[in-house]
Design brief:
The chain is mostly helical and 137 residues long. Helix content is 58%, strand content 5%. A two-stranded antiparallel sheet has the order 1-2. The two termini are 22 Å apart.
Length: 137
């Protein structure tokens, strides 16, 4: 049996480990489902920038952006760095397409963070199981 670490030598029951992993799995599935269908947030509200009118008229007039603060408003809600970073996304034809691209990018970023955390935990505690803190984080 695994232990909780140097502060406690009590074994962690298997039912508790599986329960925690189950809760985390349900939460992750819920977040993925929510992210796939809820495409409105802060980034949505600030779209599209004025440059989109000439760059991509389809996105400028996209029906799924009608509720955005910046819809058909000649203004910019981001600074120059954000616009240079996000400029290629203006070539897509709807905010739903932009949300799917961002979802894939965020999934990669979370996986990379998970990998870095795993390596760090292994270096800090090479003789202990890091599964529960890693999954819980």
């Amino acid at each position: 049996m695994k232990t909780l670490g140097p502060l406690s030598q009590r074994p962690v029951p298997a039912w508790l480990r599986f329960s925690l992993l189950g809760i985390v799995a349900v939460r992750v599935i819920g977040v993925i489902w929510s992210a796939a269908w809820n495409t409105h947030g802060d980034y949505y509200s600030s779209l599209p920038g004025t440059y989109v009118r000439t760059l991509n008229p389809v996105l400028w007039n996209s029906a799924d952006l009608r509720g955005a603060m910046g819809f058909h408003v000649d203004t910019y809600y981001h600074g120059p760095v954000q616009y240079l970073t996000l400029y290629p996304l203006a070539l897509l034809d709807s905010y739903a397409q932009i949300a799917w691209v961002l979802w894939a990018f965020y999934a990669f970023a979370i996986a990379a963070a998970f990998w870095c955390l795993r390596r760090a935990l292994f270096m800090l505690a090479p003789d202990h199981s890091t599964t529960v803190p890693l999954i819980g984080s």
